[in-house]
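ligand=magnesium ion
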Amino acid sequence: MFDKPANAVTLFDGGPLSNWRRRDGSPARWEVEDGVMTVVAGTGDICSEEQFTDAWVHVEWREPHMPDKTGQAKGNSGVYLQGRYEIQVLDSYGWESPGLGDCGAVYNQFAPLVNACKPAGEWQTYDIIFRAARVDESGQVLSNARLTVFQNGIVIHNNVELLGPTGGALDEEVARPGPLLLQDHGDPVSYRNVWLVHLPPQGSTTYEPH
Ligand code: MG
């Protein structure tokens, strides 16, 4: 849908996972082959070294074929903005009314507006426009994080204000920059072509005619 902008920061383009770490800071141990990284069950979530606040995040992923599984056991992973807010990754293809735990949901907070899922085995995209929480000098939250999400070019979240970090968040310190975290939920979900563009917190507040 979108071309990778020239100012994008590459998080994964097929190379080694030297810029990804496990939660405990040790090296990521997911499998990398032919430009694709795949969850190795039990090796844990992986976090980008790159930290961000406001950003446009692009992720491509592919569901494994798991025809004997259902619900949360079918191709579960997740994309966590700042390591705190999970956009669910799941094989929810064909569900008429995806709910709070289905693919595209902000986990347990907002269901996707529509089901934009492709079948297992096909590559899918998330383009997430993320606005970090705003806090005052004492750390009091002035506004929660917000996001808009395109899945496969279809809007599935329209500028929703999140309720706070989702389950499994790295921490609750929403004022701090955080990494992109990809979830090991025990299923061999694959990822490729992961990048982000840092966004300024706001544009100019003045106008100087040219
Ligand atoms: Mg998940």
